[in-house]
User: Fold this.
Amino acid sequence: MRSVTPMAGAYVLLTAGAGAFCAAPAFSPGTSWPAVALLACVYVGCGLAGRGPRGMGTFYPVLLAGAFLLPPSAAALVAVPGALLGQVEQRPKWLRRAWRAAQLAVAVWASAQVFGALGGPDAVSGPRFPYALVPGGAAVLAFCAVLTLLDGGILAAAERVPLRGAWRGLFLRCLAPVAVHGLAGLMMAVLWTSSYGPVAALLVVLPMCISCWVFAQYQRERSAHQATIRALVQAVDIKDGYTRGHSERVGQASMMIARELGMPDERAEVLRFAGILHDVGKLGVPTRLLRKDGPLTPEERKVIELHPEYGHEMVRGIGFLGEARAAILHHHERLDGSGYPYGLVGTEIPEFARVVAVADAFDAMTSTRTYSRARPVPVAVAELERCAGTQFDPVMVGALVRALDREGWHPMVTADETGGVPGARAEAVPLRGASAR
Assistant:
């Protein structure tokens, strides 16, 4: 939700209305307010302990314990104070807080409904604890399903993500962590209803809070990595106006290929870094060559062709880049051995470099520059397929083509937004017959 479109605003208000409807019955007589207040306070405290650079963490064990212990309407209220007190960086903050509170309230309500319908409360409070695993598992599935449904909807409404891809992968990414948290929440519920009472139940929270704190440290480290990437890209942007936007789009296309190839998320993220930083070596190339309007002389071409090696030297000591460093060095190699800097052949070229080469050429062809108009995506795809097997890895070309057929091409940064300087030229991975820069 970078900006609030009318559709996104309406979607948030609709979700907030649903959350209010779910919680409204709790305000009738009979609600155990001390239990609601205690769980809400624990949720706030655990969320603050796990707060990362993007605000308060979401501590699902407490929310799911509320779903296992309380009536659905009361359980829906447990998440509200923590969500409303959560730190939000992007505006409008009040709308983002309201969205999170409503989303969690509806998800917890649905989870409690499923748990109660399957006899979970009796299994938790009695000697039949193992039988609580079945309704507990069903409640976790319901919780994940509601979060997925609402998250996909807001992506489609606020971020304009195509409907075909808005929900893709959300449920599976949500299920694993929530399942672990659900087991902890079930343990809390069992201890809460035992002779030991709520104090014993809260002991389950301590190791979970520690794990959330550790995860928050990881998030801070990841944010530091992102800041390093941004600083390097901004430095290149200042030097070569064409690279601005191009780097982000190459990272985006590289991620599309990675997902199509089934790469794990960790490798895919490093590959995105490779795409974003593939031209960082241009910092070592004289600006006059990058912005030259006329053709390059053979000597000038040799200087520009040094930029992969410059880039590799610049990032050599950045450990978190991993395989991305090889991609920065070898993204101008060609399958037939006619590339540079080392003339590697076939699978001698690192996998990441073969991915970035395809993504780089694709964006070079589909971007408008000062001296050439963007080619339509089908034309660029046809050219990639023509050069597959000689210049590009056919596997990587095929992966990009399949991803484009399914998702289309929706670049995050368009050529019109780059603010490129006059004379800024394409980088040195053009297709055969094009000007190498």
Observations:
- Confidence is low (pLDDT under 50) at residues 52-57, 414-436.
- Residues 152 and 168 are 8 Å apart (CA to CA).
- The chain is about 65% helix and 0% strand.
